[in-house]
Design brief:
Helices cover 33% and strands 23% of the residues. With 343 residues, it is α/β, with parallel strands linked by helices. The protein folds into 2 domains: 178 residues, Peroxisomal Thiolase, Chain A, domain 1; 156 residues, Peroxisomal Thiolase, Chain A, domain 1. The protein is globular and about 55 Å long.
């Protein structure tokens, strides 16, 4: 039977399966260590459009279509779409998926949106409200810089603590384990842990790892307590986009709780770029960071059975240009998704 575990977690009796995943990225991401794994690398940063925002919308649309193509499904077969991005009012999503005409839940969890969308899609399917749903999210370096920092034309200097917003989108099609379409799917969403807002008072918008690491530590700790598990029960615990500085802070915070992550921990922001050859400073970030890394790198390892169980913890910094300009601190949030090999 389905179980509510502890304060913030769920375990599914019949875990929803992931039928297909798609990832489309920009040139910088394609030049990184995972470049050969993405479904498509787009060399035109504007994706044939006139503005950065339109480019991100097109990126989302093409990624959604790619996921449907990979599992032979049409828009009519998908009951709900759970999707989001980093832009104000979620305009990359609302304009991007307009032509699909799939009933939409527009989401905002900052860079944790991949975890939020997978959580809600799996909950809807597990509860019987949908046979099939899509989780979709994106980010774009130029549109995010324009939204949260400075337009590219300013040529502002970036401190070493900054992360580089990933130009990329990830789409995931989930279906009930009892569905005929899911019979060959080998990865399931076995459970979730929903994060809460955590604020350590960080005010530096160029230091996202420090803002998000406390939330990641809180969610990972809550998950392990809720489930009665240890780090050793997972092949990997993978955060979304803490970067190298955020990873150091996360391990220190977990150590204070008596939990050593050691080699079990990886971070999508550190995986997607090469720190030695690419000028991304602390690593990658953005909604597309966890989403594309999950689709291209994590899921295939689970599908092949190289990994049996992974805790994915996409992380988000909940700031806006309004809150930042008013001198507010930057709270963080992180959502945990348990992914298992199910064959």
């Amino acid at each position: 039977m389905n179980e509510i575990k502890g304060r913030a977690s769920l375990i599914y009796e019949n875990p929803p399966r992931i039928l297909a995943a798609a990832s489309i990225v920009g040139k910088k991401e394609g030049d990184g260590p995972l470049g050969h794994l993405f479904d498509r690398i787009e060399t035109d940063p504007k994706f044939g459009k006139d503005t950065w925002e339109e480019a991100e919308s097109e990126l989302q649309l093409q990624t959604a279509k790619k996921a449907m193509e990979k599992c032979g499904m049409s828009e009519e077969q998908i009951r709900y779409l759970f999707a989001g991005d980093l832009l104000a009012q979620g305009i990359a999503t609302s304009y991007g998926i307009l032509e699909l005409q799939i009933p939409l839940f527009g989401l905002y969890g900052a860079c944790s949106t991949c975890g939020e969308s997978l959580s809600l899609a799996s909950m809807a399917i597990n509860a019987g409200y949908a046979d099939c749903a899509m989780a979709l999210t994106s980010s774009h370096f130029a549109s995010a810089e324009k939204e949260f920092r400075f337009p590219l034309e300013y040529a502002g200097q970036r401190p070493l603590s900054t992360t580089w917003t990933v130009t990329g989108a990830g789409a995931f099609i989930l279906a009930s384990s009892e569905s005929v379409t899911a019979k060959d799917a080998s990865v399931c969403v076995a459970g979730i842990t929903t994060g809460k807002v955590v604020d350590y008072g960080v005010k530096d918008s160029m230091h996202m790892g420090a803002a998000m690491a406390p939330a990641a530590a809180d969610t990972i700790y809550q998950h392990l307590m809720d489930m009665g598990r240890s780090v050793e029960d997972y092949d990997r615990i993978i955060t979304g986009d803490l970067g190298s500085i955020g990873q150091t802070i996360l391990k220190e915070l977990m150590g204070k709780k008596g939990i050593e992550l050691k080699e079990a921990h990886e971070d999508c922001g550190m995986l997607i770029y090469d720190a030695g050859t690419q000028d991304t400073h602390a690593g990658g970030s953005g909604c597309g960071c966890a989403a594309t890394t999950l689709a291209a790198y994590i899921l295939p390892k689970l599908e092949r059975g190289e990994w049996k169980r992974v805790l994915l913890v996409p992380t988000g910094a909940l700031l806006s240009k309004v809150s930042f300009n008013e001198g507010q601190s930057i709270p963080g949030i992180a959502h945990g998704v348990v992914l298992e090999h199910c064959k």
